[in-house]
């Protein structure tokens, strides 16, 4: 089957950096034990399982905030994830006497610094992001009275802000086009508001890659974790903007041959938190897929945790 390998895809700068920080901690005997990761270091459960094999304990519970999760840690080291945390989380970890390692992506820090600066100047900040995602939790946690999380137009209508100074910014991994659209809606209601689009470059170039390439395929396979926001956006862009049916899979074993039979060309991409080895296995499978040969219709993954933790990005699959 013809395979369009959309580039760039897979690990971004922030994910590689966070993984290196976590793996280095695991192999450094001077770091206090046990070592906990507050939430998934990046949104990919294969990575969390691989980190467990080298002694790092991921604490995650979708019903709990990062601040609440910290109640489960009483000693040792805590690693903050690439998505960032609020000042309240940092303060609480310090009060508990924990050794802190901060793996927040520098682009998330940049957005949070912008929010802090605007609040100091007397602004209210409207933050476009996904509810119950750790990155907005960290941003809103800077000042819950002054930072207002919105996800859609209905949320904007409920705001009723009276401050004449309003700034708009966003979660780094949203759809570029959705953020632009929502920011325009906000500026219609608050015409003097300032807008700083903080979609990170890694997210943006992956989205543009899908928009330009998926339209040449009959179907798109997006490799990544269903919890990963940037991965979901890639599937959305293929389907809603490039008009190519997309399927989000976690690894090669999730592929249903019925999606491919009767089609000639498949496009493949992967989220910024998807290990390169998992995507390469998917590509190998698709390239050998022959609808007339049933022996090519299923594949059992041969990867182990060492393949998953391969954190040196493939030059063909990563431009950022
Ligand atoms: S997607 Fe962007 S903001 Fe998020 S970790 Fe990667 S580089 Fe950083």
Features:
320 residues, alpha/beta, Cobalt-precorrin-4 Transmethylase, domain 1, Rossmann fold, four-stranded parallel sheet, flat, disordered C terminus, binds iron/sulfur cluster
Describe the model:
By secondary structure, this protein is α/β, with parallel strands linked by helices. The strands form three sheets. The chain has a four-stranded parallel beta sheet with strand order 1-12-10-11, sandwiched between helices. It has a four-stranded parallel beta sheet with strand order 3-2-4-5. It has helices spanning 13-26, 45-53, 66-69, 87-95, 106-120, 134-140, 153-157, 176-189, 201-213, 229-240, 276-288, 305-308, and strands at 2-5, 35-38, 56-59, 77-80, 99-102, 124-128, 147-150, 166-170, 194-195, 219-223, 246-249, 265-270. It is 37% helix and 16% strand. The model is unreliable at 313-320 (pLDDT under 50). Iron/sulfur cluster (SF4) binds at residues 12-15, 82, 105, 107-108, 172-173, 200, 202-203, 230, 272.
